[in-house]
Amino acid sequence: MTIAGLVLAGLAAALHVFIFYLESIAWTSPRARATFGTTEAEAAATKSLAFNQGFYNLFLALAVFIGLIVFGAGSAAVGLTLVFVGAGSMLAAALVLALSSRELLASALKQGTLPLFGVVCLLVGVLV
């Protein structure tokens, strides 16, 4: 189960790198505006906020990726701790998103499903 959890957390991290790209690099593009449901004016007005939020997503992904590397290098406790922190924070952010607005529930599910399954698998792997 540990390996499955690490793979799922890695996939969640990859998704969060893509979210970083959309928020911090491509925020005003038609693709990002369609993804987040913003108009050109809204995207322009919120560009600096999205830029900052994108980096939060990138940093969570980096915590997971570094944890995977450290785990693979033989330091399981430190690696798993980093993966739990990164994926657990992704899951918490998805929960906040879901609770903040019913309209954002689908986005929260997309953002939070992989880290949820990753964390559950890791917990089962560690506790069993």
Notes on the structure:
The chain has 128 residues and is mainly alpha-helical. Helices cover 87% and strands 0% of the residues. α1 (2-25) packs across α5 (76-100) and α4 (47-72) runs antiparallel to α5. The longest helix is centred in the middle third of the chain and has 26 residues, at 47-72.
Ranges with pLDDT <50 over ≥5 residues? none
CA radius of gyration is 16 Å
H and E order: HHHHHH
N-to-C terminal Cα separation, in Å?
Answer: 9 Å
- How many helices in DSSP terms? 6
Strand content: under 5%
Q: What topology does this entry show?
A:
Layout: H1 2-25, H2 30-36, H3 40-45, H4 47-72, H5 76-100, H6 105-127
Which structural traits does this protein have?
6 helices; transmembrane helix; membrane; DUF1304; transmembrane; mainly alpha; 0% strand; 128 residues; DUF1304 domain-containing protein
